[in-house]
Amino acid sequence: MGVAALRLGTNLRGGMRLGAQARLIHSGKVTRDIATTTAALKKRDPVPHLSGTKLDPSESFLTGSNAFVIEEMYEKYMDNPEKVHPSWAGFFQNVENGLPPGQAVGLSRQSRNQVSMVPHVMTEGKDLFQVAEDTVKLMSMIRAYRHRGHFIADLDPLRIDDEAGESNTYQPPHNTKNELLPSHYGFTEADLDREFVVGAELPGPPVRTLRDIMSTLRKAYCGKVGIEYRHMLSKAEKDWIASQVESKFDTDFTREFTREQKLSIMSDLIDSEYFEKFLSMKYSTAKRFGLEGGESIIPGLKTMMLHGSEIGVQNVVIGMAHRGRLNVLANIVGKDLVQILYEFKPHPDPDLENYLGSGDVKYHLGVSNSLKLSNGHTINFSLLANPSHLEAVDPVVVGKTRAKQFFNDDKERRRTLGLLIHGDASFAGQGVVAETLELSDLRDYTTGGTVHVIVNNQIGFTTDPRAARSSPYPTDVAKTVGVPIFHVNGDDVEAVVRVCRMAVEYRQRFRKDVVVDVFCYRRHGHNELDQATFTQPLMYRKIKSHPTPVEVYTQRLVDEGTATRQELKQMEEDEWNHLQKAFKDSADHVPAGGDYLDKQWEMFKSNKELSIPQTTGVSEKVLHSIGNAYTKIPPWFKIHPLLKKILSERREQIELGTGIDWANAEALAFGTILKQEEITVRLSGQDCERGTFSQRHMVWHDQDSGAVYTSLNNLGGKQARLQIANSNLSEMAVLGFEQGFSLEHPNALVMWEAQFGDFANGAQVILDTFIAAGERKWRRQSGIVLLLPHGYEGQGPEHSSARMERYLQMVDGDADKFPTEFEASTMIQKANLQICNASTPANYFHVLRRQVCREFRKPLILLTPKSLLRHPQCRSSIKDFGADTSFQTVIDDPDPSVVKGKNVKRLAFCSGKLYYDLVRERTVRNQNDIRFIRVEQLAPFPFFEIRDVIAQYPKAEVRWVQEESKNMGSWSYVRPHFETTLHHLKDNRKIAYIGRLPSAAPATGNANQHQQEVRNLMEDTFSY
């Protein structure tokens, strides 16, 4: 605006200086402290009539930010009135004579410089100040259109807002329409054909009539597309968007597409609409969650893929909820139409037996497919399966996208694109959307931009927008990360196509998220069997009589002479015949097992294919080599003195072969996986670089420069890469991200660490729907590891329990059946989860390596210690990591002073950190007839190992001892497994519980009570 106003000043008598003065005098908002600003009139009496009064707009002459200009001018004027322009001299003289600022600039017409050097059509009846003022007002109007034009854009196909008192959507501020009228800025009908200098403010000629300017702005911002982008921080991005949307309407926008392009759009629209019509006719009683009412999204997505492929996109990872999913599978991803129709019928699924799975409804299933597009380019699609928790798939898609970029070395992040298709109610209502958006520009989580497409039904299940959100649009949450939002009327398929093309171009150009909000409607209710008129009678009365998108576009093409009705009718008949043929072929279709699995998983075994156990131990030579390398400090690096001491101690532990602590074992595990197995390791979580308990220190910070150094990425020679990613303060989105990362490629150890174990509560949807049940429902393996700090050390209810009972409850093993030896050997391969509570650094080392050394992948819930990180007894010898060692699921009491065989009075089974507390108490009591057996792997339950231990001590009582309350921890899970084991042994002994009483809270927050509970636990354990 300022540039144009100054440019105008150069064309006026008085030159640039006068134009600038006019801009200052007439610029908008007035500072309320004019007296201070013109203390200007420093040495003279202040302007008394301004004191304590509120300035009205007629007295506006200066913005506070420009106050210094008037002061400088006044000083020059005081020194010599001839040093300033005559207009300034007149202004100061008027102020000194007591006139208000507004009147001080109101010089008589006779005393003003008259405009005489510009075309008459620009200035008829106008003088210098009026032209300058009109230019400023024009620029304000242009700004208003760019900021608020979307509020009055024609977005709703149903135009429900036209019904007085019946609107169910957000209403713009009452004065918005007025702000976009020329009259609001003082322009009249007579001004419409006046010419104004707009320069570079608008594309096209630098001098244009007001009528032409208004036409461009209305078409760009108030037509079928409404754009929100002025909230963005980047000027370059805003300028690019403005140039794109404003230049489109510099000529007749109906000529934007050629006849061939319009017919192609119509073909895609017919494919979309007739797919839904066909399914409706053939399967009228089936839930499909069809796209009816939003069919134009398919041509939009098709264009996005075509144009994206031309500007670098090779892979697209898609996540979406139910609505329109089958349509996207058929018309975008390229899933075989015969297969889709086949799945509507009751049918056997060979993969379910192979994966011991449950399967899922068809509108949840995913697919991977490589598709050659009409432009000759190929795109590899991955449509992720997802649960009914609509937006939970968002971070999973983003994580898989990032992993695909990582494994394809797509450092610029242009070849792989994440595409999320949302519903309006869920996008506004579910917090994981905001969490996922916040990952968009974080170093270790960015994917170079996700394209978000909103299927804006203008309704939730049965809830109107006014009850579903507190913001004008469902997309307002995206403003938090400063990305553009394109709203578009779904009945205008060309507008949808145009916006989708612009969205993918923006993403590729600026590598940031972008949102396309397609206003449409649901022709049926929540699903095809729902009766929507119960709650939305007005909306569905309109929908019933509203033409379909194909009918709307047909009329448009016929009216503008692009095509005849007969031509378009033939296109519809051809598509219908195509669908009929696919339906006929589906009757004889025989699906092939394992269709659509990603190629990198082909060599990994399913649940029913026997996997040979692999070794996890490593030679001492390799351990020494990695230990020396990862503790080596470069000579140029200024390391923290305390960290230098820690690294020195770790190197000494490895050299001596004794006293290896938890963090050292973890580093050795990572190092051997990176170097020996050449498998990447990714660890993510809040503060995981250093470790919540200041134990890890895998990323070092130079104490002078702040530079960072990761020694495990500098082991020497060929190795895979370690990624240590400090996350934002999110659980659900970050865990979902890591789950998505783990789904992309089997050759990665992907780990998420909670700050404290029970913080995983915030990610429960990801745990329940993706991690615990994902393989059963969707045949997708994941080797993700959850590190959940756990242990009762008196830190209160939110920092004690990792809530292991919740994970154990989700395990699908049968507690009532003792397995055969073969079943026991394959149990972990067939299980849905592994849950371990390792108590030694060596066992932690082995369980991590076991994750990547097998021929299958399985999620691992790993309870990790807090106090044990520095416990002097929680140490391992280097021999425990050696080539002939492996993970121990059960560890018998190693203390040689404890009695054996029939002399043992009590077998106390326990897990994790509690073992060390019990051993310490046993030493204090000198009571050596009780043995403590550690169960390191709780699930799958180690039946044979437990059986063998129990059989060695036939006279001992069998007890389960735990820190957690009776209604928590592992007691409810292990009890039936122990009973089955004892029954198998034909042993009449019963297992009993020792531990805290049932409780609502996981732990007490009172230190005295905690200590008393510990004393009670010890007393119960040693009293028999």
From TrEMBL:
Its cofactor is thiamine diphosphate. It comes from Rhodosorus marinus. Keywords: Oxidoreductase, Thiamine pyrophosphate. It is an enzyme of class 1 (oxidoreductase). One of its GO terms (cellular component) is oxoglutarate dehydrogenase complex. InterPro entries: 2-oxogl_dehyd_N, 2oxoglutarate_DH_E1, DH_E1, KGD_C_sf, ODO-1/KGD_C, THDP-binding, Transketolase-like_Pyr-bd. SUPFAM superfamilies: Thiamin diphosphate-binding fold (THDP-binding) (SSF52518). This is 2-oxoglutarate dehydrogenase, mitochondrial. GO terms for molecular function: oxoglutarate dehydrogenase (succinyl-transferring) activity; thiamine pyrophosphate binding.
